[in-house]
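Reopening this one. Same input as before:
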Amino acid sequence: MKKLLSNLTFQVIAAIVLGVVVGLYFKDFGPTAKIISDKFIDLIKMLIPFIIFLTIVLGIAGMGDMKKVGRVGGKAILYFEIVTTFALIMGVGFANLIKPGSGLPAPHGAANAKLQVYQKAAAEMKWGEFFAHIIPSNIFDAFAKGDILQILFFAILFGYGLSLLKETGKPVLDFFEKLNKVFFNIMDVVMKVAPIGAFAGMAYTVATYGIDTLGPLLKLLGAVFLTMLLFIFIVLYLISVFFRFSLLQYLKYIRQEILIVLGTSSSETVLPSMMEKMEKFGCAKSVVGLVIPAGYSFNLDGTTIYLSMSVIFLAQVFNIPLSLEQQLVIIGILMVTSKGAAGVTGSGFIVLTSTLTAIKVIPVEGVALLLGVDRFMSTARALTNMIGNGIACIVIAKSENEFTPVVLPE
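Same output, byte for byte:
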């Protein structure tokens, strides 16, 4: 019994269940729960920039060959594009098949203050600037803001510069190795309070939005969850079969991360621990350092499914028939806009609003219909994104012969 109580997986499950009960019966606790949940996420965010920087630098400096770095990066981007395209097609296909928006009344006067914030952000969002933003003007500012892409870019350059020093750079490399271990030791301490973060996140969600808010949009929620489950157990399963590893073994190994994301609705909370887990799973440090952080910006399988289904859902709500040609155009636009969804507050709504603005077919104010249930759908998005990134890491590692099978702990 003592062993069970000390098990982190059991603690997180118990915390999530307790969070649901507290959220249902003690709604006044919602604001306090939000503060606790936000502070737990801040604890993780505090470590992310340094862990990403050190992991990438150590990986590239250890690799020593920038051609290999370019090859790994190129393979990762190609894989991301192929798999997210499958996610988009599945989202559009199932939205047409299930028709979650049919029979739901269209919103009236929905352009409230919160929606107007998203509309303004979407209008100001320029996708060319997103890619130009990758190069930081001040690296200290990038660390302060936790800008993953800018840190990734600088770390690649730093790792390359360090690799050119060869033996002279070994003391720096040794120091970074020790520093990296320090940050992962801190991460182990932070993860001990993960049940508190998961409890608070779930309590806030249920207390604020309530189970009853799911009623009118239950069909959409069900369709989104079903599509994401099918994506994991069909598309990602087939990928795992092709590259000869067990999807179920992988999911079992990251079960703690899955539960933490389930409780907090944020995949950022497990980014450092996923990097550590993927190394222990058998992926080379150099591959993990490049693929996992890049995946958080470019391999958003769950987000692309959500975006594609939401567009079709809103077309059905407003009784706007979309031809095959129009749907193909939407897929094309989403292939571009979905890549900018990372690192932006309210990214799902901003990207969705910018997409609706671009296609000029579906009323933008319809996005307000999704505001009440977004917290629930963000859980599915975050879980699918996280699981997909781990799979991507294994695939790229195997394609580079940088994967060493290990005996996993029970």
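So the earlier flakiness isn't reproducible anymore. For the record, The mean pLDDT is 81.
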